[in-house]
Queue: 2 jobs
Job 1
Amino acid sequence: MPYADLTRVVLETDQRQLPRSHAEKYELKTIWYWYPLYCLGGIAFVAFVILTITGILLGFFYVPDGRLEINPTTQNLTNPAWNSMLVIMNEIPFGFIVRGMHHWAAHIMIAAVFLHMCRVYFTGAYKKPRELNWLLGVVLMLITIMFGYSGYLLPANNLSEGAANIGINMTRASPVIGDQLARLLFGDINTLTGVYILRWYWIHVFILPLLGTGLMILHMGLVWLQGVAEPH
Amino acid sequence: MEIEHVKGKIMEGMPGFPRQYGPVRSDHQPGVPFFPQESARDFVLIFLLVAIMFFLSAVVTPFLGPARSPQISELIVPDWYLLFSWGLLKVADIFPQFTIGAGTPLKTEFSAAFWGDLLSGIPVIFLLILPFIDRGREARPAKSPVRSAFGIAFLIAWIFTASLYSIREVVAQRWQTPNGSPLIDDIAMKWFFVIPPVLVGLTSYIGLRRLGYQPMRKWLVPYVGGLTAIVAVQSAAILFMPGWLGPQVRPYIVQLVIFLAILLIPMAVASFAVFRLPESRARKWIVRVGVAGAIAFAIAYVALEYTGAANRLAMSWVLSVLEPSMNTLLLMPIFAVVTGYLGVRRPYSTYEYLLNECYQCGKCHTVCPVTKVEDDALGGLNLVYNTFKKQHDGVPLWTCLACDACSAVCPLDIQYSDYILEERSKVHARMAADGGSRE
């Protein structure tokens, strides 16, 4: 018996199969040309897995220290975080390709998450009984955007400086607790001390992954339980 | 009893008839196994994705740039997914700035940054409350046109224009009039927040309603006619109102008139078509003028832009009139013609769009008077379901009474008799094409 047949028989005997969708169960005629849009959430998850792997590798070499210092030879303003980026890009074997993977997987993940949200919106998949999963999805999208924002703060380059300034100003603009919130998130109410790098590093590598992974498991678990909302 | 037992023995182990252990599981249905079928497909996608990432990271190395320093002079542009928020922050200075509760602990300063926060929060709040404000049952985009049109207008068009506004400095620098002022001024960019999303929303609404078989003339006439009137009035104001055209543009008034005519005439024809012509002719005329207008615009542009310095100067002065009014003069003609086409176009086939919602409750078959007398219609048939499976449904095409009893009981409001009438008309059309003789 060929191998594929053998596995099929084993699995069918065990009845270990993916839950069948509503449309499969009732033999509904689905709008098949929408199916490619149904892999966007999966693409986001695959990108997230790749981001985790490359992120762990980058974490071995990245130094989360944004305090300004003067380079003794060139007399230019620099900082340890940016210097470690130079090491990753120029000295670590395959460092630039790991950083490139991390960079592009992030873009792909955010694009996939946004398109996934559009797909869910336009096919009405957020409706009863899937409201909770939609809310989880909105939170996950915000977490993904925060991942992106914190990710481009970390290289401690000009873009990081500008983005941190915008972020601090937007946080400080919130009424009553603005300054306290800015101190909590960015370590200070301006970027001079460079402590924001350490804050956002910890948010980027611990808090957001913890929240994100947990919510992703819930999100996919609910899809498993409730079934895919198919276009029919 | 015996035959059931034999049948079970024969079917056991066949695809779709797994062995049953223990009590019979009625919920179990044969499906595609996760391994190796589903997982093979998944791994193809995953490897493709990883290959794309490797390719991108090898070809486009991520930018690093100089180390951060407190003095930044260059323009900071965040990553693309935060541009909308940056654009909203930049546009927030149009809102009044004031302070409430000054001197109390709850002092709230409505500064530009706070307005920017609030504006960026609008899409998030909308997404959070969405499942609680939209309780409708329809899932398909064309069946709930308000939701879909709002989504296209707000989640796509508005987010896009907000992102565009965040690079207003780049736009102002890149496109300039011959005397050095920005071609697309700040006011035009600000109107970009309002006019394109509204146009996109209305056009999507009309196009989607049309997909669901609605006659859209009631919407088309005021919409296309209104856009035409706006562009006509503005063109007249540009040409005849003293003080509108600058002295530098005066010498190029002939070219300007040609461009305005190219923009206005297709709109005018489209509004006449949706107002007076029958649908099939309106459709043809709108396509014709739309294509002709696009070609004429391209020819006029190329003829001026690429034929010598004098003509290029003329073109840039013409653009200096058209571009600041791009929301009206350039966008509205496009939207008028496209909407005219979408609103009168032939919708999808009934078969694809209306019948396939059936979930086989079988009510239609129960009430159908024809199935009571047709011999071969007994048992196991389902009017709507079998029709879209292209199987025998128990009612031959010319035997249906079109009594609509099936639609009256259908829980999903599927209009079976509409389908029958359309199929019959198709047969008539085929007969007419064959020379009108009966089959």
Job 2
Amino acid sequence: MDRFVFLTVDGLAHGAVLAVFALALVLIWRAARVVNFAQGAMAVATAYVAASITEATGSYWLGFVGALVAGLALGVAVERGVMRLVDHRAPLNPVIVALGLVLLIQAVLGMLYGNEYRPIGAPLSRTALDVWGVPAVSRFDLFVFGTVAALVGLLALLFTRTGLGLRMRAAAFAPEVSRLLGVNVAGMLTVGWALASAAGALAALLTVPTGLGLHPTAMDLVFVSAFTGAVIGGLDSPVGAVIGGVGVGLLVSYVTGYVGGDLASLAVAGLLVAVLLVRPGGLVATASARRA
Amino acid sequence: MSDPLLKVEDLTAGYGAAPVLRDVRFAMSDGQITAVLGANGAGKTTLLRTLSGLVRPTGGRILFDGEPLDGVPPHRLVRRGLVHVPEGRGVIGELTVAENLRLGGVWRRDRAGEARSLAEVLDLFPEIARRRRHAAHQLSGGERQMLALGRALMARPRLLLLDEPSLGLAPRITAQVMALLRQWRDATGLAVLLVEQNVRSALSVADNAAVMSLGRVVVTAPAAQLRDDEDLRHTYLGF
């Protein structure tokens, strides 16, 4: 029983981070029809910003806020400075450019900070607290759940309750019509990239302390898992991204705990194939509404 | 007579090498409904797309309210009162009816005025008002046309560019749409540039008409004259 509780909480915490990262991928996919393969590298870059600020000021929280701001700025820079210049008529072009960005960002980070793992401490204790006598959840886990819930809630409010959210959704669904209605579609795209990049930064902040440490490739595995989660959920659906991310997190945790870590990736691939066989558009597919 | 609301001078535009519009010239003033008639491929839709900034002109000038429009992006034109309802109506099916309507005035800063516009539009289209919470893709063709019109009116337009509002609609609904246009024009002084294949229904509502052929405006005349003068009708409209 203890083991099951531990694996579930651990899977949920990891899954929450994957959900945020998948959500960031979905944000950009919906706005630009591009899978941002550079998202992992971009997120690591902001985590380095956080580490530098924390080192200079001694404050973890200044670094935390600094990374989110850096995430917003990096998203704007990548969209305005790189992606906007790419010819999107062939879908492969932005993918290749994004992969090039990965190499560029990782190389620059390596030159600036070195290619060693740099241990990053968690801001809160990672020792599990007892709940009814069972060691269940650590303060850091609670912090992860709280931050992820806050982010998901804020994004949901933004998209369903505000004029900006309405403009962003309209621009994604029908760019030309939106322009005719007074929506600055190019501007909405920039906002989308900024938000997604900041969400990616948050995911990096929440996951790097639980791994080997900070490294230019530290988010690569997270990217792969989150991308899988986003596809399982349905790339078009923010709700699907959260479900897919949490699902992959739980599956990895259970398989690692009960069967063995070697099989975790295989299990995730199996889940992906199974879901796509049954529902090719992902669990939360919106294809029917789109074509009506 | 004051300056015309819209003045088009020697407008040339197209996609790629071959121009679709050649030296198009016409003018219209506030409160006027002008029908643009002509066969398929005459350049009617391209004319609207050029006026609303979706297609870049390669020559000539567009003056709206006395000011040139070259290089002004579409989303800024809406703020000046030039609103384009595209062919197929452009209702966003993924959004609800209420969201579509809100989108029409989403750039506006005056919340009170926006609420007033919404009340007016809902008053004008009771069947839309009843279905506010539905997804827009659930609406019928006629309801979509009403929604697209209502959404355009949310922007308080001075000039409405309408591309084939009768497309796919039953004659009764088309007549209803045309009557609404007239009513709104009489109430607000709105000007309408109406592109139509349905010549009879367009001439029934328009004050003036411009006939296009192969990218040029070949004749402009009062709508009544085109309706009643058999020679003119034979020559330019073929019936």
